[in-house]
Amino acid sequence: MKITVRPSAFPCSLAACPPGLFLCGTTLGFKSEYRTSVGGMEAYIIESGEFFWGGSDNEAERARLVVTPCEVLIEIAN
Predict the structure, then answer these.
(1) Domain residue spans in the chain?
(2) Which of 7, 12, 24, 40 could form a disulfide with 16 if both were Cys (CB 3.0 to 4.6 A apart)?
């Protein structure tokens, strides 16, 4: 089995990123369609399950982070 992560769209802000997987540097994350109780975006680090902050200090700064939406391709050999 071969698993590949590749960009599915051009880089954009986390706020503009559609729900799904994204890359920020070497971090693979997941943006949910849901919001936190205070209206912030729900985004998580795939490897750890921790909330994704990307080195930002607040929600406004995090929303401006540049991320790349991506997709996972899985090839299964017969």
Answers:
(1) 2-75
(2) 12
Q: Dihedral sign, CA of 41, 29, 21, 47?
A: negative
Closest CA to 66 of 22, 6, 21, 20: 22
CB neighbour list of residue 52: distance below 8 Å, 6 or more residues apart: 24, 27, 29, 43, 44, 45, 62
Residue 70 DSSP code: E
Separation of alpha carbons 29 and 69, rounded Å:
9
pLDDT digits 0-9 by tens, 31-45? 999 887 777 889 999
Q: Identity (one letter) of the amino acid at 54?
A: G
pTM: 0.87
